[in-house]
Write a structure and sequence with these properties.
transmembrane helix; transport; mainly alpha; endoplasmic reticulum; protein transport; 4 helices; golgi apparatus
Length: about 200
């Protein structure tokens, strides 16, 4: 719900005037910070889920974190574009308000700062592309781990079933050994009795 609210605020940025755009940006940033704080709590809570639900909960938290990072990046890109527009507007106004004379030696337009800012912006875009690629790789790794964990869980269940069968066989063996022990003791007693009777009555 909070992510959807931030997305709706993002839609207001393009339509906000110069006086209110800063307020909207501050509101969006505050909401994003609040979501990041909640995500830290969610990570702790997901680690306390039962083992069969823990991986799914962690995936949902990672997906939320990726969505919020994307919103944070979109906000920074908008702020950079706004800053560039405002800087260009100031330079345009300064240029229009400036009076040149025939002997004015300082007639060059300072564009080095603009070029440097543009290069920095391009570098930031490349960094965000790398971040998105890294996030995609992390999600793919989490999916692979999920498949591996499912296979491991199945093997554990198979081993548990085999152990249950082994326990049943061991109990049957112990029961049979106990019965054989009594049969042996009974046979020995019967043999001794017969020998005693033979000795007693035939001699």
């Amino acid at each position: 719900r909070q992510v959807h609210e931030v997305q709706s605020y993002m839609g207001r940025l393009e339509t906000s005037d110069k006086e209110s755009v800063h307020l909207v940006e501050n509101e969006i940033q505050a909401r994003i910070d609040n979501i990041f704080s909640n995500l830290e709590r969610l990570e702790i809570l997901s680690s306390k889920e039962p083992p069969n639900k823990r991986q799914s909960a962690k995936l949902r938290v990672d997906q939320l974190k990726y969505d919020v990072q994307h919103l944070q990046t979109a906000l920074r890109n908008f702020q950079q574009r706004r800053y560039l527009r405002e800087q260009q507007e100031r330079q345009r106004q300064e240029l229009l308000a400036r009076t040149f004379t025939t002997n004015d030696s300082d007639t060059s337009i300072p564009i080095d700062e603009t070029l440097q800012f543009n290069e920095s912006l391009q570098s930031a875009h490349r960094g965000m592309d790398e971040l998105i690629g890294s996030g995609t790789s992390i999600l793919a790794g989490l999916r692979d781990q999920r498949v591996t964990l499912k296979g491991t869980h199945k093997k554990i269940l198979d081993v548990a079933n085999m152990l249950g069968l082994s326990n049943t066989v061991m109990r049957l063996i112990e029961k049979r050994a106990f019965q054989d022990k009594f049969l042996m003791l009974g046979g020995m007693a019967l043999t001794c009795l017969i020998m005693f009777l033979v000795v007693q009555y035939l001699t």
